[in-house]
Amino acid sequence: MMPALYKRKVIDEIIRFLYSDDIIVIHGARQVGKTSILMYLQGHLEAAGEQTHYIDLEDSRYVVMLNKGVEEFLTHLKEHGFDALAFKKINH
What we know:
Elements: H1 9-15, H2 34-47, H3 60-67, H4 70-79, H5 84-91
């Protein structure tokens, strides 16, 4: 069972940009809670009915896939039920 994820102050700042075209970069030292923040945000978005997909670049399979290019990544997303082209049409 996963431990409880606690909301951090920075999450309110990040949430302000979730529905914008801005890119959000979360960086910091190891073990400071970056992944926990992402997991909290994923839960927040899914509770709002949004579809999410989390990839961990510590997993070398994702690194290899991303190094092959955007199309490879879009294919991966589609195989997991996320159609990026349909998403773009709905949201723009």
